[in-house]
């Protein structure tokens, strides 16, 4: 009698169920480097610290791209299921943002290791790929939501913002490449192209955000597991403030003086009030997070939403400190960077623990096959969390 086959190992099962939401860990790591290198507060060793995080994010991106390619090659059925799952499909925007964040970090800090020429080439490759994927996601994912997904009334969540935020990340990082283009048409086209991406993303955000907040007010309540995704709203806010500052930095000598001055004014006239709203939302999201933890929210990959969006507010505050000369924005950037580091340390340590304990691998069925995968960001709350929540708060 033949011996029974060995049970499946955790690694193949994890690859099968590896969703695009894992790119959020790359984004959250890269933003630590990108925000740290420009922090307007002198801290000994901060540049080296940022360099380490850039290298870590680059390694994470390479490993994840390889694993996801294997996932598509060997588990195409599961990959297609992810696209048809309204809880998972929006995370394809994270692929774009991961590419863009690592590319921007390569030019900001990685150039000190690999050289300026190699950094520019690398950033160009990642910027073009990230921007193309981001634009595709910004069109394809909303199309799938309208035509392919079965969405219930009141099912909106901040995750819906992910595909439309990706062009804003491209808008904020594209100006870094402007000085590395031939003067004239090429530089102007890239700068105004980034401004176009800025408008595309911001208008789409203004369309979606009232729907998301409407659910928060009228119900049903967000599941506890999705509470950290409230911080995703900070992404388009902080990144747009960052983008406005980068436009002002790149515009002189690229566009005519009146427009260059207009970009400089935009950095302050737009950035100050939007940063104010971002801080309001940050306080609201923190209050909701405390509530969710008090009601028993457990760790999930949604906790990575506490990193990249906060990091965009750090870079936005850094830009405002530069363009206004106010110390209050310098210290705001330092405070938010401390919050970013705390969030990254928490998410990273708990993610590593989950990988070692197999917490991210669905339980095997009786026949030895992996059980059906839960949504990467589940729409339904875990039973234990629902039991801990007062009945009046349940959807």
Query: Main beta sheet: strand number and arrangement?
Result: none
Percent helix, as a range, is 55-70%
The total count of strands amounts to: 0
Report mean pLDDT, rounded to a whole number.
87
Number of helices: 14
Poorly predicted regions: 1-9, 363-395
Q: Which class best fits the helix and strand makeup?
A: mainly alpha
Cα Rg: 21 Å
| Cα-to-Cα separation, first versus last residue | 53 Å
Strand content: under 5%
Order of helices and strands: HHHHHHHHHHHHHH
Q: Which geometry do the CA atoms define?
A: globular
Looking at this protein, list some descriptive labels.
395 residues, mainly alpha
Brief description of this entry?
The chain is an all-alpha fold and 395 residues long. The chain has helices spanning 10-16, 23-36, 46-74, 76-84, 92-114, 116-147, 162-173, 185-218, 234-250, 257-269, 271-294, 308-324, 327-357, 383-388.
What does this structure look like?
The structure is a single chain. With 395 residues, the chain is mostly helical. 68% of the residues lie in helices and 0% in strands.
Give the SSE layout.
Elements: H1 10-16, H2 23-36, H3 46-74, H4 76-84, H5 92-114, H6 116-147, H7 162-173, H8 185-218, H9 234-250, H10 257-269, H11 271-294, H12 308-324, H13 327-357, H14 383-388
Helix pairs in contact: 2-3, 2-5, 2-12, 2-13, 3-4, 3-5, 5-6, 5-7, 6-7, 7-8, 7-9, 8-9, 9-10, 9-11, 9-12, 11-12, 12-13
């Amino acid at each position: 009698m033949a011996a029974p086959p060995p049970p499946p190992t955790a690694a193949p099962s994890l690859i099968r169920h590896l969703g695009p939401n894992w790119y959020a860990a790359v984004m959250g790591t890269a933003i630590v480097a990108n925000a740290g290198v420009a922090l307007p507060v002198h801290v000994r060793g901060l540049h080296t610290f940022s360099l380490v995080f850039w290298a870590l994010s680059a390694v994470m991106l390479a490993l994840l791209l390889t694993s996801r390619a294997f996932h598509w090659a060997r588990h195409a059925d599961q990959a297609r299921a992810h696209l048809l799952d309204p809880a998972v499909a929006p995370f394809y925007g994270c692929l774009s943002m991961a590419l863009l964040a690592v590319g921007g970090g390569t030019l900001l800090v990685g150039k000190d290791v690999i050289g300026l020429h190699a950094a520019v080439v690398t950033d160009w490759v990642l910027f073009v790929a990230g921007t193309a994927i981001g634009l595709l996601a910004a069109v394809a994912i909303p199309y799938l939501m309208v035509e392919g997904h079965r969405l219930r009334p009141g099912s909106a969540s901040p995750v819906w913002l992910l595909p439309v935020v990706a062009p804003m990340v491209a808008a904020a990082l594209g100006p870094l490449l402007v000085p590395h283009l031939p003067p004239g048409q090429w530089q102007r086209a890239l700068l105004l192209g980034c401004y176009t991406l800025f408008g595309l993303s911001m208008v789409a955000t203004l369309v979606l955000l009232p729907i998301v907040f409407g659910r928060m007010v009228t119900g049903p309540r967000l599941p506890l597991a999705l509470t950290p995704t409230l911080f995703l709203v900070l992404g388009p806010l902080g990144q747009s403030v960052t983008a406005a500052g980068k436009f002002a930095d790149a515009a002189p000598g690229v566009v005519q003086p009146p427009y260059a001055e207009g970009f400089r004014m935009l950095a302050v006239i737009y950035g100050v009030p939007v940063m104010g709203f971002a801080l309001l939302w940050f306080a609201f999201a923190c209050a909701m997070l405390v509530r969710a933890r008090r009601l028993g929210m457990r760790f999930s990959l949604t906790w990575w939403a506490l990193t990249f969006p906060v990091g965009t507010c750090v870079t936005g505050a850094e830009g405002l400190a530069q363009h206004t000369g106010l110390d209050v924005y310098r210290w705001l950037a330092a405070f938010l960077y401390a919050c970013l580091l705390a969030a990254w340390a928490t998410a990273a340590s708990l993610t590593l623990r989950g990988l070692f304990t197999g917490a991210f691998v669905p339980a095997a069925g009786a026949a030895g096959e992996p059980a059906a995968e839960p949504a990467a960001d589940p729409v339904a709350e875990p039973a234990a969390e629902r039991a801990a929540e007062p009945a009046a708060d349940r959807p």
